User: Which sequence fits this backbone?
C-alpha cells in the first residue's frame, strides 16, 4: 500500500501536521480518520471539494473515512476564519441541509458496507448534560490558551459570543467521541481548523492517554489572489440545480494558467506523471491541460454524460460562437424580438450584466458580443433577424456565454 501521507503531500494537500513521522508510520496500516462539515448550505462548493478529494485519496490507500456532519455544532457556527458571528440556522434548515449533503459525499467516497462512515454529531452533542460536560471535558481547556488561538484572538475586538467560545470544546469532544467509538486517530481539515484539531489531539491524550494526529490542508487561493471557489456568478456549487454542469465546467476551463498543474494534483485522480506532462504545456497548448482538468472534475461531480456534453459545448464555443443546448439558456417572447429588444436590456436580463448601466459600459468597452460579433453601440437593438438556428448567443468578455431562444 502506498503511504497516503506521501501521496497527500505530493499532491499539495498538506499544510501542517502535528507529527509527520508518527502519522506516516500510523498510515502504513489501515487507519480511521475524519473530516467534519457544518451544514451551512444545501450543497458543498469547490472549496469543500478539496477536503473531499483528500478523503477519497485516503480511502483509495486502504483507510476508513468518517464524514462527520455537524448537525450539533452547526447550531452554534464555527468562528474560525470569520470576522463576525455566523447567522444561527433553524434546526429544520440544518436537517434539510444535512439531507442534501449526504448524497454529495457519496459521489466521491464509498460509504457502503462499512468502507466509510457518515455520522451526525447531533446524535451525541444534543444529549450532553452541560454541567457534567464542563466537569469532564471543560476542565482540560485553558482559557488563556484558547484566547491565544488565532480564531478567537481575531474576533475579540469585533466581539466573540459565549456560544461561539464553546465551539472548540465541542469539536475536540467530537474527536474524542470518534476515537472511543470508532478508533479514529486522525482529524483533517482546513488550515483555519488547526487550533481546534490540536485541541482534540490534546484532549484524547489527557482523557484516554491515547495518541492522535492533526493534519490541515492549505486554504487555496488562485494565483491572482482570489479565493478559490468564487466566480463572477458567486460560489461554485457542486449541486447541478445551483450551478449547471456547463457553468461548472466553464469555471475549470477558465483556470489561470499558473494554477492548472496545482489544481490537477488536488482535484483529479490522474497519475502524477501525467499531471507533470500536462503542466509542462505552454502557450496555446495549455488549453489542452485546462480541458483535461475541467473534464475530470466535471465527470467526478456530475458524471461522464454531463461532462461529455459540457466539453462538446465548450469546444463548439471556443472561437466559433455556436449555440448549444447545454449552455445557460433563457427564453424571450417572440413578440418582443419582433419589436426589438435593446441590447443593454437583454444583457442585463440574462445576467451577463448586473444592470442596464453595467451592460452599457460593457458594450462601450467592446466586451459584449452577439453571435460572435461585437455589439457596436449601446443603443443597438436585437431583433428576430439575429436568430441563428432559432437561437441567439450572447457573450460578455471572453468567457461568459448565454443562449437565448424564442419561447414556444
Assistant:
Amino acid at each position: 500500500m502506498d503511504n497516503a501521507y506521501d501521496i497527500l503531500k505530493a499532491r499539495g494537500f498538506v499544510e501542517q501536521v502535528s507529527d509527520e513521522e508518527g502519522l506516516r508510520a500510523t498510515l502504513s496500516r489501515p487507519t480511521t480518520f475524519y473530516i467534519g462539515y457544518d451544514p451551512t448550505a444545501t450543497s458543498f462548493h469547490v472549496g469543500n471539494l478539496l477536503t473531499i478529494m483528500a478523503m477519497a485519496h485516503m480511502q483509495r490507500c486502504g483507510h476508513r473515512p468518517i464524514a462527520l456532519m455537524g448537525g450539533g455544532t452547526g447550531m452554534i457556527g464555527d468562528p474560525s476564519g470569520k470576522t463576525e458571528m455566523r447567522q444561527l440556522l433553524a434546526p429544520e434548515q440544518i436537517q434539510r441541509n444535512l439531507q442534501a449533503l449526504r448524497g454529495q459525499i457519496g459521489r466521491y467516497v464509498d460509504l457502503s458496507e462499512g468502507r466509510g462512515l457518515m455520522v451526525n454529531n447531533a446524535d451525541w452533542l444534543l444529549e450532553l448534560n452541560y454541567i457534567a460536560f464542563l466537569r469532564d471535558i471543560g476542565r482540560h481547556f485553558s482559557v488563556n490558551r484558547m484566547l491565544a488561538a488565532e480564531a478567537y484572538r481575531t474576533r475579540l475586538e469585533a466581539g466573540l459570543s459565549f456560544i461561539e467560545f464553546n465551539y472548540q470544546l465541542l469539536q475536540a469532544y467530537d474527536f474524542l467521541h470518534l476515537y472511543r467509538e470508532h478508533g479514529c486517530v486522525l482529524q483533517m481539515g482546513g488550515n483555519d481548523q488547526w487550533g481546534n484539531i490540536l485541541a482534540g489531539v490534546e484532549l484524547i491524550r489527557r482523557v484516554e492517554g491515547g495518541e492522535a494526529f492533526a493534519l490541515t490542508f492549505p486554504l487555496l487561493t488562485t494565483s491572482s489572489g482570489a479565493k478559490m471557489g468564487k466566480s463572477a456568478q458567486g460560489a461554485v456549487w457542486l449541486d447541478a440545480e445551483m450551478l449547471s454542469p456547463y457553468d461548472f465546467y466553464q469555471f475549470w476551463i477558465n483556470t489561470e494558467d499558473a494554477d492548472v498543474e496545482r489544481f490537477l494534483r488536488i482535484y483529479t485522480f490522474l497519475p502524477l506523471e501525467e499531471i507533470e506532462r500536462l503542466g509542462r504545456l505552454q502557450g496555446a497548448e495549455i488549453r489542452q491541460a485546462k480541458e483535461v482538468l475541467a473534464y475530470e472534475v466535471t465527470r467526478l461531480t456530475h458524471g461522464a454524460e454531463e461532462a461529455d456534453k459540457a466539453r462538446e459545448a465548450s469546444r463548439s464555443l471556443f472561437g466559433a460562437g455556436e449555440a448549444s443546448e447545454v449552455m445557460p439558456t433563457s427564453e424571450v417572447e417572440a413578440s418582443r424580438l419582433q419589436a426589438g429588444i435593446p441590447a443593454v436590456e437583454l444583457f442585463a436580463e440574462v445576467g451577463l450584466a448586473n444592470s442596464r448601466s453595467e451592460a452599457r459600459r460593457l458594450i462601450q468597452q467592446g466586451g459584449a458580443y452577439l453571435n460572435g460579433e461585437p455589439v457596436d453601440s449601446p443603443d443597438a437593438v436585437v431583433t428576430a433577424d439575429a436568430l441563428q438556428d432559432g437561437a441567439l448567443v450572447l457573450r460578455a468578455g471572453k468567457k461568459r456565454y448565454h443562449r437565448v431562444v424564442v419561447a414556444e
Summary: Residues 286-302 form the longest helix (17 residues). The first strand starts at residue 16 and ends at 17.
